[in-house]
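Allow me, if you will, to draw on your knowledge of protein folds for a short while. I have a record of one protein: its chain in single-letter code and its fold written as C-alpha cells. I should value your view on which stretches of the chain appear to form regular backbone elements. Thank you for your consideration; the sequence and its C-alpha cells are set out here:
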Amino acid sequence: ADHTQGNIYIYAPKQKVLMKVDMISPGWASFKDLSVAEDIGGFIRAHDEVLSYDFDTFMGGHLTRLGNRQDVEIAKEYIGSLQANAGKALGAVDFMTIGQQTGFENLYLLFDTFFDTVAQQCADATIAQWGDKLGGVDIFAFDNCWTMALYIL
C-alpha cells in the first residue's frame, strides 16, 4: 500500500506514459498529510517505484499539468527534505521543556503542543527550501511535517 489500498499504476510502455494518481502532483507539494496516505513508508518508497518505470510522461491525476521524470525526481527530493527537516526538528525540540510550558496533567495538550512545535520548525525549514520551487508548500508544509514527524517516531 501507499496512498490507499488498491491504488494502482497504469503504464503504457509503448507510449512511455505512467499514471499514479493522488501521490505526486507535478509542480506541487504533496497534498495535506502527505497526500492523506494510509502508509507513509509506502508513500515514500512509491517515489522510487515510480522512477523504476521507463516513462517520459507522468500523470498524477490532479492539478494543472502533466509531468515528466524530472517532476517525479523533484517530488522525491521534496519528500527527502521534508523527512530530514522533521528529523532535525524532532531532535531540536525538547519534550520536557514543552511539558514545563503546558504542564503534565493534560497529556493530549502536551503531545499536541510538542508535535505542533516540531511541525512548525520543520515547516519553516521546508518553506525556506521549497517555497519558491513547488506550489502549495506554504499551505501544506505544516501538516506534512506533522505527519512525517509521527512517522519518524
About this structure: Residues 69-92 form the longest helix (24 residues). Residues 19 and 59 are 5 Å apart (CA to CA). The chain has a mean pLDDT of 94.
